[in-house]
Design brief:
Largest sheet: 2 strands, antiparallel
Strand content: 5-15%
Number of strands: 2
Structural class: mainly alpha
Organism: Pseudonocardia endophytica
Number of helices: 4
Distance between the termini: 68 Å
Order of helices and strands: HHEEHH
Shape: elongated
Protein name: HicB-like protein involved in pilus formation
Radius of gyration: 26 Å
Helix content: 40-55%
Strand order of the largest sheet: 1-2
Length: 165
């Protein structure tokens, strides 16, 4: 996506507004247009990122991300992978479900404080998958919760026998 057209349009609008004022205002407006270029691009990128985040919430387990290629933003759309039909179910985990019947789609916020080393590993894994950390964590948690529960370990300690072990 090219931002130049949007920035140029703003520059043109700014110049048109300054035309109704005197020469002093027009001169100041011309000097402000250059420094505003970077600020306008940054604000546009922030708006596009916020829009991608909102769309991602509606696409779970799919996602939309904004990536910069040079100074140009590109949208990356990831759809949920279809389950493989040829592989046995035990070796192919089911894709995370989007929402359960009782879920109204509302988004909740939790505070997660992993050790720094785990945080780094999560960020690397999300980056490899081309996902935001939030989307990656949501997918991993959903997949883990959708797996059948493991068998409960036997009670008591191994190697100990008797009532009081």
């Amino acid at each position: 996506m090219e931002l130049d057209g949007y920035v140029d349009r703003l520059r043109t609008e700014f110049a048109a507004i300054s035309e109704v004022a005197g020469d002093d205002v027009r001169e100041v407006a011309e000097r402000l247009v250059g420094p505003l270029d970077s600020a306008v691009r940054l604000v546009l990128l922030e708006a596009l990122t916020a829009a991608a985040d909102e769309i991602t919430l509606e696409l779970v387990p799919g996602s939309v991300h904004l990536r910069l290629r040079g100074s140009s933003p590109d949208f990356v759309v990831t759809t949920a992978a279809a389950p493989a039909t040829a592989a046995p179910a035990a070796t192919t985990p089911a894709p995370p479900a989007a929402a359960t019947e009782g879920d109204n789609g509302a988004v909740a916020r939790i505070n997660f404080r992993p050790p720094e080393s785990l945080k780094n590993r999560i960020e690397e894994a999300a980056g490899r998958d081309g996902l935001s950390v939030n989307t990656w964590l949501t997918r991993v948690a959903t997949a883990a919760l959708d797996q059948p529960a493991p068998h409960a370990p036997p009670s008591g300690r191994a190697g100990r026998v008797g009532w009081f072990g």
